[in-house]
Amino acid sequence: MSFVTAALPHNQCGSNGLPLTPNSIKVLGLAQKLKTLKHENLCSYVDFKCGRHERIFAVSELYVDNVLDRIMAPSSLTQKEWNEFSLQTAIGVLSGIDYLHCIGLIHLCLEPRNILLTETGVPKLSGYGLHHMTDGGTLLNGPLGLVKYSSPEQILSCCYPEIPNALSCKADVWALCIVLMELLHKEVLWPDVENKSLVKRVLCLCANKSAQKNIEVLCQDFKEKNLLYETDQAIQSIKTILENGLCVNLSKRAMPYQILKQLDKDKSSVPNPTTNGYKIEYNGNTNPLLEMDSDEVWYLWNLAGGDMIAEVLRSVTTTPSVRTMPSFVTLHGDLYGLEPSPENLFNPGFQLLSLDTVESRLEVNSENISLIYPLLELDTSEEVSHESAKLPLLIRENDFDYQVHRIALYKRLLLGYPYLREKLWKESRIDIPPFCRGKVWSGLLDVQGDIEDQYVHIDKDTPIITDRQIAVDVPRCHQYDSMLSSPIAHGKLKRVLKAWLISHPQLTYWQGLDSLCAVFVHLNFNDEPRAWASLSQFIDKYLHKFFLKDNSAIIQEYLLVFSHLLSFHDPMLYCHMTEIGFIPDLYAIPWFLTMFAHVFPLHKIVHLWDTLLLGNSSFPLCIGVAILQQLRGQLLESDFNECILLFSDLPEIDIDGVVKKSIQVFCQSPKSSTFRVHAHYNTLPKTELSETAIPLSELKQEVCCRISADDLIQLAKLTKSSKPRIFVIDIRSSDEFVRGSIPGSYNFPYIT
């Protein structure tokens, strides 16, 4: 299914002064909810793509058989068997639309072609959610659904949009009844009739006071007019559906669950054929695709070289270029005289995307079975995994076989969380698959408990003092990303931010918090509780006390420790930057306040944070040093003004290089060299040899970091090569040095 969204006027801005959000972006944001819907009578959506000219493509499960084909094709079933098939199809559709109604969605595009059938005859609704993702059709050019299957109130709502609440979920019940009559009679109703005449015929049914009269009128338009007068049990049940669904009066038309209850076929009351939630049926098929979710299959299909838009465009007939020229174009860019056909605006058809390539690469044999089904207690695939881990990250993330193994491994680790947290941590040191990054991050951040219940019970609606600032910042946060630029994403960001503020009353909102939040919302777009819980844990660990109302002492201490760490690892660069007066206060506050989320785009941030989450609260300092060392050549040749210009438009940064260098800096830095009073440490209890708090005024007078006596003792120990890891300089007087000193140290008396 694909459709073109309505065009917006050129050179116009919204009330906030920003350019209007394209309707295609709004649709993409609204459509994300549909990816979470799972029901036995729904075809699951797996993705939505935006192509050229604001065209949206929907990707979902596909079954080659559908109700329309069954109606048109001859059948070998007897009339009694056909009646039963029609009834079971209607019951399945009722169950599907009842599920949609329970979560506040209306189909409004129900027709025989949109009711797909599995190999066992189970009906699956497709094409649903169009009303939701187009905001009631306002983002779409043209009406929703076919006129023939539209209820009277649905048609009237197009003529009189000012009628409040004209549309309801009962419109789907009406559409189902029309489809059911066509299916029962094996005949399409009102073929080859123009839309104008169809509107008249549907509205003429409003004159009938009862559903029974409407049934009689509709039966007269079929060749077989007496099917509903049979005494078959299935026919009686079908009549029950029709009598409850073809009432023009909305108050008398039944809801899906009411019809199911009358039929005593409520799906929720069907006993589960299992006792522990696991399926007991097994047909001996070892195809790994059958064990994967549709989301995972889609991800692997793209990794295998799939290009959905290219596949679709290959199957369509292109229009000659000369026929796509407008009559004239205004100076503002408005086009006139180019009216696209309805078929081009909305295409309900399907394009089958073959899974043959994925299936062939997943073929289970003795050589790759350990890659698809990894064992946690045996390191059978560890050698393969670690060999591949030597490749660049970009290559690993696009390597089909490697990602199949990593995803399978992480799925098992996540199922065993929190008991397998140590193994999860160990594997994350190699890399994290993009497919399950959001869940893995929450595991690394130790997110536990019923976070959904906690999130639901937080009041996110009552206005608070920071609402205005949040409303200003959110529409400007990572707006290059198609999902985060949608109004739906803005709403999610505001709710998660408010939930964090309400759950942390001692803290306040600072600019930059929205950039932090955006990373977690992007990874957990359809799981706000996880985004909120991950954000909370992340701030507690890496930004402890940063968001106090008065955070000056915390920020100053952090920048001083960073400055001392830079002087320890790169004295020349530190001296140059200090000499020209380019201090960390001028460039590093946005770095650390947002953990670099305000500086780098999302695709770089996720790779940086994959490593950051494995380090302690001092690791961001090492990242800052690594970034400066990557810019070392330019900084040493620049004066103050040039440095300001350089950091105002930061040049391209090699994130892979930053990650490797930051790990090196972290490993070469004594633990106590990054000690901070305001840090949130989860380490062993302090001893008398541990680092103690140093007044901020004293820290400002020093140019290098201090280390604790405990670190000094550890570093002074000889290594396997019998070489000390430190060079100890004793600045006491010669007499004191002779009296007692550290073995191997050198005396350089300090003279004032």
UniProtKB/TrEMBL annotation:
The protein's name in its UniProt record: TBC domain-containing protein kinase-like protein
Domain Rab-GAP TBC: 431-616
Entries under PANTHER family matching the protein: GTPASE ACTIVATING PROTEIN AND CENTROSOME-ASSOCIATED, ISOFORM B, RAB GTPASE-ACTIVATING PROTEIN 1-LIKE
A family per Pfam: Pkinase
InterPro entries: Kinase-like_dom_sf, Prot_kinase_dom, Rab-GAP-TBC_dom, Rab-GAP_TBC_sf, Rab_GAP_TBC_domain, Rhodanese-like_dom, Rhodanese-like_dom_sf
Residue ranges constituting the Rhodanese domain according to the UniProt record: 722-750
Sequence ranges assigned to domain Protein kinase in this UniProt record: 1-275
Any GO molecular function: protein kinase activity
